[in-house]
Amino acid sequence: MRGTGASFGIATAITVKTFPAPPTATIFSYNWQLSASEAARAFATYQSFVLTADLPPEFGAEIVLTPGNVQGNVTVGLAGGWYLPFEQLNATLKPLLDKLPAQTREPSFDTGDYLHSAVNLAGGSLDTSSAPDGTDTFYAKSLMTPEASPISDKALEAWMEVLANEGFNAPVVSCRPPRTF
Predict the structure, then answer these.
(1) Could you give phi then psi for residue 143, rounded to 5 degrees?
(2) Buried (b) or exposed (e) across 93-107, using 16+ Cβ within 10 A?
(3) Average of pLDDT values for 104-128?
(4) How far is 30 from 87, CA to CA, in rounded Å?
(5) Residue 175 · residue 119 · CB < 8 Å
(6) pLDDT score at 171
(7) Which residues contact 14 (CB under 8 A, 6 or more apart)?
(8) What is the rounded distance in angstroms from the CA atom of residue 177 to the CA atom of residue 57?
(9) What structural domains does the chain harbor?
């Protein structure tokens, strides 16, 4: 909110603009098991892709990095939503996928209408009537990298080495609160 400074603000009115739901939606997931150096190159390739490709606003994606299946590896996931006809997704991602190593497993695609995608992204249900959402004490920090100075190759190498080795034995905790049905 503008004008609230370091204090707080009180919303007295909210104006929203709605848009028609897209006629189709696809939730996608691509996955790789890569060495730390391969993961660094893959991340650099993705970083370059999103900075240079003319991506439509109907494309939303994230990179998910976790310790790999063996120490020294990193699991790299590319997941997201596509809100145009499915056939156009592969054409949009082809320049990226052509530069990445072979995938560890076949990509997954879940295509339906917009509401179906919302259910998928919510973990399987939009029903909040059975119980209120649980208290979530999970803390996350979003790191933003300026477009003018992307993450350097040296920093990517160091990051992936830590994730692949020191991070291999670190506990991974789900960020979703348990659901009660």
Answers:
(1) -100, 125
(2) beebbeebbeebeee
(3) 89
(4) 16
(5) no
(6) 72
(7) none
(8) 30
(9) 25-126+138-169 (3.40.462.20)
